[in-house]
Amino acid sequence: MVKVREPQPAAKDDPSGDSASFAELYESFAPTVARAVVAVTGSPAVAEDITAEAFAKAWERWEAGLGDSPTAKGWIWTVAMNLAKRRFRRRREVPLDRTAEDPFDDHVRDLDLWRAVADLPRRQRQVVALRYVAGLAEHEIGEVLGVSTGAASASLAQARRQLRHTLEEAR
Amino acid sequence: MNETELDQRLERLMAGVETHLPPVGDVRQRGERLATRRRHIRRASASVAVIVPVLLFSVFLLWPQNGDSVQVTSDGTDETMESPSTPEVDVAQLQGRTFMGDRVTEDGDVRLLAGEMPLRLSFDAEGQIKTSGGCNTTEARLDLEALAQGHLKLEPWGERFSTLAGCLTTPELMDQDTWLIDLLDSGVAWRLNGYYLVLTTEQLEIRLFDRADQWPPSRRDPADSTPQDLQYADEEQEAWYEESGLGQQLQRERETGWLPVWQLDDGRYVFVPRERAGWPPGAVTEAVDAGMHVVGYWVTPGLFVDRATFEASDFDLRSAFLTQFVHHEELLEAFDEGGEVGVVERVEGAIR
Questions:
Q1: DSSP one-letter string for B18-85
Q2: Cβ-defined contact of A86 to B10 (cutoff 8 Å)
Q3: Do residue B340 and residue A146 have CB atoms under 8 angstroms apart?
Q4: What pTM was estimated for this model as a whole?
């Protein structure tokens, strides 16, 4: 499991300590998770729902120890990515709709690259999201996705190669 | 474009993605709802009601004596002996059999269950049943009258015995024990459908298969057939891939070089050890479980010294895989929250 969060025990005399630490993590971390899931699913609406679901599951276990766990972020990444994968499985791996929703603000647009990402296989989109949104190292990506570091590295290399190829063809 | 440029473009692209998340209070409420639902599952079995003497007496009168054979129809709807047009199944068909499984559908959706093949029901010849949802085993007496009327129901005032394993690391299994006991306390319709025991309520359907089917395994000479390699590749590459949830023993064997493979053999789906040297100790039932996960539960499993087979009259490999994808995802959900993924096997190629 990825260790990306230091333990932050709640103050014993503060009954709202759990709630406060959860809120703090949600405010700081959920947008990153949501952006990564957008990259995987292509849909901000779906990504927001999946992110909320992952954090709801986290809250359910927060007082039971997850809040004090150094692996809380890794746990949430894994849940979010598995929820995203399941959502796709239920949809029979329908390719991303590249035009239905525009997940970008008005200032940062790189639609060629976005379309190239959308054309990647789901596993490669996950790896790209975890690398470029979450900033995870390859061995951490492997842990989140339940694959070896080598497999994660290979997927990332394939994704980069495919992206470069697609972008050069689009020129 | 070099890698650095690509990395920079990707980072800018991802940083520009906008989302609008719900407030943290809404997420906490959603989490509370999940917790409430979990607590409902964990509720304790209802306490046994006060025994009503008249009811006891009635049951005594209706109780089948030793050697009696209670007749029910195959769909469990009626036990009338005067109805010759109704197919009848002797309750004795349940005696001595153990049914197991993990396939539960609730309102049409597959329900998450923890553990591998956690649900087990064993029937003896004396009207006793042993039940387990994955942790403890509870032995109780069946309501034989209800059984004859097509309902599997525990006798509420009968003695019950239970093992007392704590299952501290897997409380979900204890929850399932309670859930199963509650279900059988309420009563579920039952029917035998081929090799399967099917339990149903208005919302639920539980499908269990007979653990003893085609047991013990019979020897079969590998030279009797010439299996054709079944090859399939990643669906994302416009082919197929297979992910089977292998048990720990098979994983260990896999790590030491013993790798089972799937083959299509004369219309059957066959799971064979690569070396054809027989099954490693402990791997046989795991192989069957893994196979059942893959191809679904409406096939007939067969165990042989060198292979496990799965057969069905209208077996459709493609449909089986589609089903497996959906079902296996539900199994994966059990691993989601533990941060583990139980997918260990992957075979590549293309369906021929």
A1: ---PPPHHHHHHHHHHHHHHHHHHHPPPPPPPPPPHHHHHHHHHHPPPTT---EEETTSS---TT-TT
A2: no
A3: yes
A4: 0.42
